[in-house]
Amino acid sequence: MGGRAMNPESRAHRSFRGIPRFKFLDENEAERVAGRFSLHPEDKLPFGIYEESTQSILMSRSSLYVKRGGSELVRIPFDSMTKTVGPATKETTEIEIHTRDGQVELLNISGGHGRFKDVFSFQHFLIRVLEDCGCR
User: Which of 67, 72, 46 is closest to 55 using CA atoms?
Assistant: First the structure.
């Protein structure tokens, strides 16, 4: 082990390659999408977005943004996460994200099929990002 920690963008390239609902953003797309999300001032431009019919999940190098139902926006800084829980079975589509302030955010990731469900890629990504930032 003992290797250098990766940044969330590098982890995303490993975790979300081949996932149709995840899109890596070029600079023009990132600026356009960032306008829809009202990013926190300390966050740089986003590098990727996962879109479903009921929610969009935007990723920057320091935070995850979840937008549900067109209006609700939740920012979850990676360094505020303490653990993730889920999915327990192949039928489960939810991941719990626990934060330092005691909050639990629920992500429902319904894309993919069987052992190739997107929720497993998301869980893998979050576990690795938490390990990289020393949050676990």
Answer: 67
Residue 123: DSSP 8-state = H
3-class SS of residue 59? strand
Chunk the chain into consecutive blocks of 10 residues (it has 136) and report each block's average pLDDT, rounded to whole numbers.
Answer: 71 90 94 85 89 90 87 89 88 91 92 82 92 76
Distances (CA, A) of 122 to 3, 16, 28, 62, 96: 22, 8, 25, 16, 11
* DSSP character string of 72-113: EEEEEEGGGEEEEE---STT--EEEEEETTS-EEEEE---S-
Sequence letter at residue 4? R
Query: Residue 12 in contact with residue 121, Cβ under 8 Å?
Result: no
pTM of the model: 0.87
Nearest residue to 65 (alpha-carbon basis) of 86, 24, 36: 36
